């Protein structure tokens, strides 16, 4: 009987809701549209060359929840790298979160291909992004506008009598890593550039882009497209290809060795009996790529960058301000309040903007002593940063919203941002001006005694009042129905509770077992990609469920900061980052062994148990 009553009431409520929605749609059809979720695919270039890398982005805009994000298989391409990128901005009264899954692909053969769309469950709905067509052509990528006379790769690729292949490669094909500095402070930005240099006729591909553990990383290019440039080094010209270019922000003190980059190259040599002093111009390969000389030799080699050490020093403790929160660089600070008159109860928005250069992306909201009666929530954050220049420059804005308090003058005192200036090697403080807000009395609404036929003050037609009265009546009926339904459900729930056994609280081990169930299944079925993704998902789920972290904040930097604030031991945080790094690189490195997967499973179980136990304590 209870189920029958519930169904009848539910149907009634649905009909009433349909009536209201239809009426409101008619009234608001010309109003502003709500922001919609967008899920689409972009490529950095639609026409590329064989062996050229290009970038595919799967972008989600305006989503509150993203789950089960799956990228397609790229059977006609080689996956060089895959990473995530997310931003959050605020404008026109609404916040917009953008999430991107970025894949760097390399074309292995010519032809016309379609980049399939990705799938994800977005705001509870299964969605697929669009497919994109690209064309892969024969030839050397990006060399159409380069003068071939600058570097004679064919001449350099000749093996003359007495010449050694290893010596030839060492002199004409190598990797370098360049850093803007090798010693810096915690939070002080430094630039790192990995490049490949070549004067030989070779086909190369990146097999390992360096991970940079211990640093917050900002990419300085949108896509590693494989287009070469000409650069002089020690008086000789080389074709150079960018492997990775980043700005790094050290997160803690210590000595770090940057991970090496690796490329695999096939160098096309041709042996000749002519002495090296005799120059000749010849074509080593015909149009189809077949060697034209019987003494052609293909030599495969793997190149790595030499180790580079970065020493990160702690920031000085002498004269460090008590409210210092880690800002390093050169900054200014301004506070902006509304220009229109403020009345009691109005929504007031105040913007605190930090301009300058340094670790802008890591800055947290400065401490503000709000007047009595002002209660603000977490601010909306908007970044306007130029990532293409070093050091990172631009602005970061924190926008606070609150209801205007009682009438009178309210003073927002000077806002301070202490920061460390590495150029002058001393602490400074950026400060705003003190601001006085004038809050006026609330605007009175029209009285109930006004004539019903015409509203002289607002010009609102009487039909709108009738419509408003009808809507209020319908809402009152729905409210009554909802309350009745809720009371019925409470009675049924109380009856069921009295008969059902009380569930026991799961132990930490049971929680960990549940989180890793899918990963264990993938391990048993020898499915590496599913295994590593499930381990990643388990780690993020613990963080999300324990501390209610928004999807846009589920990244390694914000999460490690949060764990530190919650008192999680440093060793646990370090293991958390290490396991995420291992999963990230394993996903894009083929032929993972069962033994390495089992070892990671053991480490993940221990880490998850520590996180769950830390939550319960």
Verbal overview:
- The protein has about 625 residues and is an alpha+beta fold.
- It has five domains: about 70 residues; about 100 residues, Jelly Rolls (Sandwich), CATH 2.60.120.570; about 160 residues, no CATH class; about 110 residues, Immunoglobulin-like; about 110 residues.
- It has ten helices and 31 strands.
- Strands 12, 14, 16, 17 and 18 form a five-stranded antiparallel beta sheet that branches.
- The protein is globular.
- The N terminus is likely disordered.
- Keywords: Membrane, Transmembrane, Transmembrane helix.
- This is Protein BatD.
- Number of domains as seen in the coordinates: 5
Shape annotation: globular
Major sheet description: 5 strands, antiparallel
User: What is the mean pLDDT?
Assistant: 79
Number of strand elements:
31
Radius of gyration: 31 Å
Structural class: alpha+beta
Helix content: 25-40%
Q: Tell me what portion of residues adopts beta-strand conformation.
A: 35-45%
- Distance from N terminus to C terminus (CA atoms, Å) equals 45 Å
Parts with pLDDT < 50 across at least 5 consecutive residues: 1-13, 16-34, 140-148, 279-294, 446-458
Tally the helices: what do you get?
A: 10
Organism: Niastella soli
Keywords: Membrane, Transmembrane, Transmembrane helix
InterPro entries: BatD
Protein name: Protein BatD
């Amino acid at each position: 009987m209870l189920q029958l009553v519930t169904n009848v009431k539910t149907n009634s409520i649905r009909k009433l809701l349909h009536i209201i929605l239809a009426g409101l749609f008619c009234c608001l059809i010309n109003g502003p549209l709500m922001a919609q979720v967008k899920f689409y695919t972009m490529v950095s270039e639609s026409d590329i060359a064989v062996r050229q890398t290009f970038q595919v982005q799967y972008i989600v805009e305006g989503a509150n929840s993203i789950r089960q994000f799956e990228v397609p298989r790229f059977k006609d391409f080689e996956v060089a790298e895959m990473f995530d990128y997310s931003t959050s901005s605020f404008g026109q009264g609404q916040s917009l979160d953008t999430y991107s899954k970025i894949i760097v692909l390399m074309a292995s053969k010519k032809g016309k291909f379609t980049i399939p769309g990705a799938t994800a469950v977005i705001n509870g709905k299964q969605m697929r992004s669009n497919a994109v067509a690209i064309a892969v052509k024969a030839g050397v990528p990006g060399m159409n506008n380069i003068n071939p006379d600058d570097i004679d790769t064919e001449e350099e690729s000749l093996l003359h009598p007495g010449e050694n292949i290893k010596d030839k490669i060492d002199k004409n094909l190598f990797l370098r890593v360049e850093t803007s500095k090798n010693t810096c402070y915690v939070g002080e930005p430094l630039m790192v550039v990995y490049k490949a240099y070549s004067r030989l006729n070779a086909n190369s591909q990146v097999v390992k882009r360096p991970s940079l553990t211990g640093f917050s990383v900002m990419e300085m290019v949108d896509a590693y497209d494989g287009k070469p440039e000409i650069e002089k080094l020690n008086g000789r010209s080389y074709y150079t290809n960018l492997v990775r270019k980043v700005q790094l922000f050290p997160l803690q003190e210590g000595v770090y060795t940057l991970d090496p980059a690796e490329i695999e190259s096939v160098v096309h040599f041709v042996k000749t009996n002519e002495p090296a002093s005799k120059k000749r111009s010849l074509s080593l390969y015909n149009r189809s790529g077949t060697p034209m000389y019987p003494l052609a030799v293909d030599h495969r080699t793997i190149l790595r960058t030499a180790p580079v050490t970065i020493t990160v020093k702690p920031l000085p403790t002498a004269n460090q301000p008590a409210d210092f929160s880690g800002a390093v660089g050169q900054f200014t600070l301004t506070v902006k309040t509304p220009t229109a008159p403020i009345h009691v109860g109005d929504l007031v928005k105040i913007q605190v903007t930090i301009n300058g250069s340094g670790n802008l992306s890591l800055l947290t909201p400065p401490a503000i002593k709000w007047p009595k009666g002002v209660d603000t929530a977490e601010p909306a954050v908007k970044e306007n940063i130029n990532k293409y220049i070093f050091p990172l420059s631009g602005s970061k804005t924190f926008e606070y919203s609150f209801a205007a308090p009682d009438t009178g003058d309210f003073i927002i005192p000077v806002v301070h941002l202490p920061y460390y200036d590495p150029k002058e090697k001393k602490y400074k403080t950026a400060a705003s001006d003190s601001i006085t807000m004038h809050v006026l009395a609330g605007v009175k609404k029209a009285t109930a005694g006004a004539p019903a036929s015409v509203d002289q003050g607002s010009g609102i037609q009487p039909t709108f009042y009738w419509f408003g009265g009808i809507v209020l009546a319908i809402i009152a009926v729905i409210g009554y129905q909802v309350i009745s339904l809720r009371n019925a459900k409470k009675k049924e729930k109380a009856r069921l509770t009295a008969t059902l056994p009380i569930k026991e609280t799961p132990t930490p081990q049971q929680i960990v077992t549940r989180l890793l169930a899918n990963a264990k299944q993938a391990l048993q079925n020898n499915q590496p990609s599913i295994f590593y993704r499930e381990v990643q998902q388990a780690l993020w789920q613990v963080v999300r469920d324990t501390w209610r972290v928004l999807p846009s904040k589920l990244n390694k930097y914000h999460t490690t900061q949060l764990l530190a604030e919650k008192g999680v031991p440093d060793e646990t945080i370090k293991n958390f980052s290490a396991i995420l790094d291992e999963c990230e690189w394993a996903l894009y490195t083929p032929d993972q062994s069962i033994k390495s997967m089992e070892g990671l499973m053991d480490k993940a179980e221990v880490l998850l148990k520590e996180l769950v136990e830390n939550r319960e304590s």
